[in-house]
Amino acid sequence: MNTLEKKSIIDLDTGCDYPDGIYSHEALADHDYHALPRASATLFKFAINDPMEAWSKSWLNPRYKDEKTDAMKTGSAYHKRFLEGSEAFAATYKTALKKEDYQNLLVTIKDMKEWLSAYNIPIVSKATKSDLIALIQEQEHAPPLWDVLVENHKTKHAGMDIIKQDTVNEIEFAHSLIEQDPIASAAITGGQPEVSLLYTLHLNEDGPGGEVYKIKCKARIDYLKYKSLIDLKTFSNYMSAPLMRVINKNIVDRKYNVQAVSYLQAWHYSIQNIKDNKMHGSSGFKSYLIDSSKHAKEFWFLFQQTKVPNAKLVKFPDITDWYRWGEDQLRMGQLNFCRKFHQNKNLPWTAKPELETWDDEVPNWAYSA
Known about the structure:
Layout: H1 3-6, E1 9-12, E2 21-23, H2 30-35, H3 41-49, H4 51-56, H5 70-84, H6 86-92, E3 93-95, H7 109-118, H8 129-137, H9 146-156, E4 161-163, H10 165-180, H11 182-187, E5 192-204, E6 212-225, E7 228-235, H12 243-253, H13 256-275, E8 279-280, H14 283-292, E9 298-305, E10 311-316, H15 321-344
Parallel strand pairs: 1-6, 2-8, 3-4, 7-9
Antiparallel strand pairs: 2-5, 5-6, 6-7, 9-10
Helix pairs in contact: 3-15, 5-6, 5-10, 7-8, 13-15
């Protein structure tokens, strides 16, 4: 009888019907992957200090909306170009229109009213911007209207993401420098991009005879190679600090060490899925997975600075304090997530009510804030 059979299994049903397995980026698109109701390294990281945030930013929250910041959108564009190539980038992104390309362009309400007044066209006192646009469009000599141009551009390229030309130029320049870097370029060539790992985690509760939580999880490896997992991270350096200091701070602040441990754990679970032929993609993709499963994996970060095209390839060994700290943090996050899921299910994971009181002494970190 194995260990799992001796213990009580708590099956935490996430409601995901998508089967466990390994999927190529063609078999499971990015937006479909993110929509899957499964636990992930991101949610486990939230659950370390604040299970309520994990609940709020998961499928369990009926009000949750996956709204990306501008920095996240830029990071996604870097990922698409660096990992999947120029053709995939061109199929996903379309450059935004530029105002300077249009003569006599009307942008604001003030612009529109001045143009109408110049042609003695009467304006209703309470006219909205939409009213003004409609009125101008009725004229035979109507000039270009920015709102109309932008909307038509979006409609013409529906399904694509609109991105500024300056951002495209920035990404292309950074990629050209990566290609000239024999160390960094080797990290994102010759492998498989955006590989999705869907697996079922078995997590032992603390203490002897504890239960085992069973929960469906997911991880998306930026770039899979025979002997390594590569994760591309974009970052900014507004204060012009030494690069490794900024990178180390990003690792701490964003708990990237926890992600590294979680992804290596996901790969460990996925080896059995490869053996069971739970692979989804081309024959070449499947062959690569089979060969890759024969090799132990190291975790590497490729840090790419935005605006200034600095790149650093950083190995994340599993023998360092950084890694051991990540292991401890990951287990804490996974336990917090599974316990709250088991206790509260879809209800908000509120903290236990307690009254907080200021300490007498100011903490040391406050002096350097």
